[in-house]
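Re: the request from the purification team.
They wanted to know what the chain is likely to look like in 3D before they choose a buffer screen. I agreed to run a prediction and write the result into the notebook, where they can find it.
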Amino acid sequence: SNTYIASILAILHCNLVPVFVEPDIKTYNIDPKKVEEAITPETVAIMVVHLYGQCCEMDAIKVVADKNQLKIIEDCAQAHGAKYKGKLAGTFGNYGCFSFYPTKNLGALGDAGAITCKSEEDYNKLRQLRNYGSEIKYHNGIIGYNSRLDEIQASFLRVKLPHLNKINDHKKSLAAIYQNNLKDAFIKPVTDKDFDNVYHIYNIRHPERDRLKAYLSENKIDTEIHYPVAPHKQKALQNFNHLSYPISEEIHSTTLSLPCSFAHTQQDIHTVIEIINKFN
């Protein structure tokens, strides 16, 4: 219930019904303790979203999936290079789905993405789906999509990929400055030795988020809200608007993303901290 709507739209486009699960208020990711109670005889898969650059608690989720014979789909759009207990995001489940949108840690020049999988059968099916359902040119075996990665994006990503660790390390260094210097009035990301967070987004929470955002804007500091409206409250998902997920709704009403990109310097972050710590 705490994710970008794209995760849910993918389910709906497959003519399936999404079943929302509340996040852990400390990590903002799906709460493993609440997954099993959401499973029904009609459940076919568990989709986990590694939000903001931190992996979900995959050991516990895999136990539930294995017990109920369910597939695991990982939304890794914000978790390039993130690890849980030393293992990379995208390698736990049946599928790992990556976005290379330009703002991602591994970003292309435009829209782009990739899927990882573990079987030859899935590999061949995915290649067919992305190319109008075709394995042989102009012969279409299934209903597919035009979803190929174009050569320009692929070439750019191939050059950028060897630098991913450098990009992630830089963002981690900026996040560490925030962690060590922001006042405790701001709820900061929780750190844990089992989770290697790559901080696609460095988010804080504050009960007066909107006033804080306006204050920072007045001081020439741009911030973003990821995300202002919980998915089940979006107009596009009006069939779910009656549902209540208070933890997700609290996160959406209090979260704020601070500057934390490869383009920012450590001095930039110290400047942000100096200004934000004066907020009252």
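For the purification team: The longest strand covers residues 45-49.
Please add any questions underneath this entry.
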